[in-house]
């Protein structure tokens, strides 16, 4: 009887160890890093080590997307366990800002010029039939005939159409952006916000159509152009973050209230940053403030049409 008890106890211990190992393996499974797009680049961790595409990293890791020659970084696509996704246009992100992140996809695009072929239009003196072959057969039919043909009236050869020279811009053209001024008491252009309480500047940005630098510049321009004692509305189509430069622009206009409207998981949300608020303590080690951090600090309101 004692022998069977020992066997049973040993089996139970083995089962518990297997279950614990499975639980630990599941709990420590992190975020999968992917690289996508027609450009090339790598992803590095906080130590500067390269993370291979398809590798798993800790959910608390800091990642930096580094484009390689002839490419530029576009955005991060963060997919959570439920299939929802958020986009981040800063090259360095902290995964802890994204709840239940499952996949962190770094997207790169090629910036090299497309020459349109390996030599342009084919010349008329090559292997094709010459337009003069329908005339007299007294001239040579060899395709290697010198250009100084003794024929006094040679058939004119068609010339290829000149192709316009296009230079690859160093910065994509700025998308059309309108900054709307609303006086106190008038209806605001952003649905769900009602009428303006004070003089308000509203700027709507489609972050899919602009670079991170353009996003920062438009944001700062809207804050700078808001009159003293007024409010700024930044209306975005996705969740993102604030860079140090954007935070500095808010600090410089410490009498302006900043309203950030964005869409997260299909829901339009509002974060209201009151005038004079100190954001410096919210900036992470990489110089950014994620919208999740802002929502935790100032609260978030869901907007309805």
Q: Could you characterize the architecture of this molecule?
A:
The protein is an alpha+beta fold. Among the domains are: 28-110; 179-302, no CATH class. It is built from four helices and 17 strands. It has helices spanning 2-28, 212-225, 244-252, 291-298; strands spanning 31-36, 41-44, 50-51, 56-57, 62-67, 71-80, 85-88, 92-94, 101-110, 179-182, 200-205, 231-236, 241-243, 257-264, 267-273, 288-290, 301-302. Residues 19-28 and 114-148 have low confidence and may be disordered.
What tags apply to this protein structure?
305 residues, six-stranded mixed sheet, alpha+beta, five-stranded mixed sheet
How many strands, what sense, and barrel or not for the largest sheet?
6 strands, mixed
Helix content: 10-25%
Radius of gyration: 31 Å
Secondary structure tally, helices = 4
- Tell the overall outline: globular
What proportion of the residues form beta strands (DSSP E)? 25-35%
The strand line-up of the biggest sheet is 10-11-12-14-15-17
- Write down the secondary-structure element order: HEEEEEEEEEEEHEEHEEEHE
Report how far apart the termini are: 74 Å
Structural class: alpha+beta
Mean pLDDT: 78
Total DSSP E strands: 17
Extract low-pLDDT stretches.
Answer: 19-28, 114-148
Topology record:
Blueprint: H1 2-28, E1 31-36, E2 41-44, E3 50-51, E4 56-57, E5 62-67, E6 71-80, E7 85-88, E8 92-94, E9 101-110, E10 179-182, E11 200-205, H2 212-225, E12 231-236, E13 241-243, H3 244-252, E14 257-264, E15 267-273, E16 288-290, H4 291-298, E17 301-302
Helix pairs in contact: 2-3
